[in-house]
């Protein structure tokens, strides 16, 4: 799978090239240097949107390792339980 990144301007000037690139993997379209949209082939879209039965299936999906995701860390304070 090849990941392609295009600016909005490049996408507007070369939509047919972007569609061809989407046959080989997702095409990220950026606005001011930040990812804003993703162009996928219909086959990739259908594969991604089919119902997943559990989180393990979703995480085993091809290409997941290429996705950058850093969720914010949550800090929880333990409180004593009120059992009265």
From TrEMBL:
Cross-referenced InterPro entries: Antitoxin_Phd/YefM, YefM-like_sf
Chain residue ranges for the region called Disordered: 1-27
Classification via Gene3D superfamilies: YefM-like domain (3.40.1620.10)
UniProt biased composition (Polar residues): 1-15
Top-level division of the source organism's lineage: Bacteria
Family label: Belongs to the phD/YefM antitoxin family.
Function: Antitoxin component of a type II toxin-antitoxin (TA) system.
NCBIfam families: phd_fam (TIGR01552)
Name of this chain's protein: Antitoxin
Organism: Rhodoferax lacus
Organism classification: Bacteria, Pseudomonadati, Pseudomonadota, Betaproteobacteria, Burkholderiales
